[in-house]
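Model it.
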Amino acid sequence: MNTRRVAEKLGLSPERLGQLQGSIIRRSSWPQPRLLRFDKSASGVESGTVIFDNSEVVFGYPKIRRALVLEPAIKRFFPERVAVEEKMNGYNVRVASIDGDVVALTRGGYICPYSTEVAQRILPEEAFQDHPDMILCGEMVGPENPYVPKDIYPTDSIDFYLFDVAKKNSKGTLGVCKTREISEEFGIRTAAFFGEFKPDRAYVEITRIIKQLGKKGREGVVMKDPENLRPSIKYTCSESNCSDLASGFQYYNDYALDFFVSRAVREGFQSMEWKESEEERRKRAQRIGESILLPLVDTVERKMKGEQIVQEVQIRVKSIQTARDFEHHLRRSGTKAIFDQPEPYDDGYLVRIAKLVMSTNDKTQALLEGEMW
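Modeled.
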């Protein structure tokens, strides 16, 4: 690795780059290719930024801030026009070609063996042959998503939806127009595009879109500047908030308090802005309450029966080695999981995984035995 060249790409001095190594910047030697990754944001560099041994840099995907009150946020951030896309409910990956090998990076900057195999299978090779510096930023979604399994999309396995394009060694992304251009050129699926709106119509149109998406169980929208001059913002459907709460309360002691509070607060602000009637507000309150109480009671009752609380997911892989590598990837990420024996399926293998939810298991058992909260 050429330290001076890398520091220049990052906008740092070589001395500052050296200071960050070992504390903020961590080495990952597996799987190949070897890399350095930013464990946290530092000195203007996003967390998840990766430096490969060949000195190529893939910057972390910028965090998208969330609007709680939609109308003033639109007017403040998008004074001329706003482009609206669907926010997909899965996990974020950046796909790039490194020395001719396609790899998929998680938001934290790890190479995920499973996501890499999926990307190599789904994405056309010629995309990176024609654009070797391109980074495809997208969402992996579907029921065989081992992080956030959802059966609300048109796939029985897992799929990749492009939502942005970036370039190696460069900060920022290339915006809506370039993303659509790449999508059309190579036939890559993209997040649904709902159009561009002027500020005087945007609030009404986006509210309508949000309500339609909510009925389908979808997550929400991302609002972007069509010229890519301002940061994007996101907004979530009520149904998605409640789905997250239901999932979270099923494993209540393994989620941070902010996970629950932030989603409840979103519901309050949305109810206020939409000027709901008393009846509408009570229906919302009932929906939120059921999302909290029912999965929590189910967890406690299952534990009373002596069951182990696990999150069951599954993946389909071409190679058994990919499943083994993914098991190692989960372990290094701090996730304990039990992998069943791979079952032959079509031209690959189906692997069922039980992700152990240790904190919720232990806490629930202790409370049932009389321990104080």
